[in-house]
User: Which sequence fits this backbone?
């Protein structure tokens, strides 16, 4: 049984909404990772108060500290609409500085939130973040009346409100641009109207997740059925929120991939089968490739493990027969490309991962990286502009040395692949797995330097 850590996508959205809400929000069992800590630091810089509560709670999937205690809850005292400020700065004179680390989601969501205030906010991050463009989002924010400064849309970036509203067009090769605007726009001043045109949208399920948060807050908005346009009046007020964070299908993909590759089985606890996370589609991919994927009732649903509805069921993945190739459209789920690629390396026949050109603008160019690093292990791969074709033979991979490029999903994919390799796979930069899944390498009992 593997207890899956909380969803990063949900944790980051809850932190930002709680930061912008009136009152005190409780976030039980959030994801405790490098990315979520970067987001918490950003929210504190924007003026929210965040208290950590830790306990020696074996139900919690977060990693324990040296005393055996785990992060079990964040208590967030929000700033409320239009009240973003640096508690130690004179209004409008001293800019707020925010280091988002490696978290692109934090960068994009917080950029728009920062525009609700009138104090300049300067964003920066690590070397990977400095290569991730926010240009389409910044252009939209500028059209909505905000003042932005950057070199070509890259960090360091400065943003300053007020949010004046109007009409903006934003192409979204990453859905995070649109999610950022949707979270911030309702909190613009009363009488403000934000109209968005969206000529391109990838990763649609994650915009639908953001809209779920607006719906829970009873935020009024209009939208096109294909999400190609939105009309959002200002003047809303976010209320405090509560409730445990559901498990992360993105993280669950990697122990599931390990089971598929090794010909074993795994039982995954903590996932909500009805959640809007797009990456649960990975399990449909595994089923089409020949794995047995099923939900089973958790016989222990009355125990303390049942902290979310998702814990009432267990997701089981098992492989008894050879894997087979296929064609899979990953437009909604580009983060799954590394996991899909390594599973495909063990399948019989070709596997085409298509319509996922935006995987090139993640932490790394994941299309090029996966093609190059799989090649080092003897796998034949055809790289296409919008994806990969993995020419599987159904055999084992040879061992070798892999450059994880500091990309947590690349690292976890090759750690799973090592279970089916004929020799050891050494992964440079393996520590980056802690960005979203602390403890994953230990789960596989991988040796770390």
Assistant:
């Amino acid at each position: 049984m593997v207890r899956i850590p909380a969803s990063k996508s949900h944790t980051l959205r809850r932190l930002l909404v709680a930061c912008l809400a009136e009152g005190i929000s409780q976030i039980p069992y959030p994801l405790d990772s490098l990315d979520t800590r970067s987001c918490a630091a950003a929210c504190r810089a924007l003026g929210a108060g965040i208290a950590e509560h830790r306990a020696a709670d074996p139900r919690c999937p977060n990693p324990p500290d040296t005393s055996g205690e785990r992060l079990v809850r964040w208590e967030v005292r929000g700033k409320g609409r239009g009240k973003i400020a640096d508690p130690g700065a004179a209004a409008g004179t001293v800019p707020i500085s925010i280091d988002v680390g490696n978290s692109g989601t934090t960068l994009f969501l917080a950029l728009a939130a920062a525009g609700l205030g009138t104090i300049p906010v300067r964003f920066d991050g690590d070397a990977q973040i400095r290569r991730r463009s926010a240009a389409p989002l910044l252009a939209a924010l500028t059209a909505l009346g905000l003042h932005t400064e950057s070199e070509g849309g890259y960090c360091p970036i400065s943003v300053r409100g007020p949010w004046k509203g109007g009409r903006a067009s934003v192409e979204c090769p990453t859905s995070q641009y649109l999610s950022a605007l949707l979270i911030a726009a309702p909190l613009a001043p009363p009488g403000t109207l934000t109209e968005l045109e969206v000529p391109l949208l990838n990763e649609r399920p994650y915009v639908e997740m953001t809209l779920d948060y607006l719906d829970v807050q009873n935020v009024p908005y209009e939208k096109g059925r294909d999400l190609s346009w939105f009309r959002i009046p200002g003047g809303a007020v976010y209320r405090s929120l509560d409730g445990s964070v559901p498990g992360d299908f993105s993280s669950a993909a990697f122990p599931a991939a390990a089971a598929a590759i090794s010909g074993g089985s795994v039982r995954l606890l903590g996932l909500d089968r009805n959640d809007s996370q797009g990456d649960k589609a990975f399990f449909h991919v595994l089923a089409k490739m020949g794995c047995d994927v099923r939900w089973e009732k958790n016989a222990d649903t009355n125990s303390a493990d049942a902290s979310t509805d998702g814990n009432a069921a267990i997701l089981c993945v098992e492989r008894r027969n050879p894997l087979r190739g296929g064609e899979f459209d990953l437009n909604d789920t580009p983060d799954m490309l590394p996991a899909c690629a390594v599973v495909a390396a063990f399948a019989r026949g070709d596997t085409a991962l298509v319509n996922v050109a935006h995987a090139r603008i993640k932490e790394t160019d994941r299309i090029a990286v996966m093609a190059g690093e799989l090649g080092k292990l003897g796998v034949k791969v055809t790289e296409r502009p919008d994806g990969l074709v993995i020419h599987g033979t159904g055999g084992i991979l040879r061992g070798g040395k892999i450059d994880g490029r500091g990309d947590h999903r690349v690292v976890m994919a090759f750690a799973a692949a090592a279970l089916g390799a004929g020799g050891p796979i050494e992964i440079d930069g393996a520590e980056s797995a802690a960005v979203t899944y602390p403890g994953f390498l230990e789960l596989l009992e991988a040796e770390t330097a």
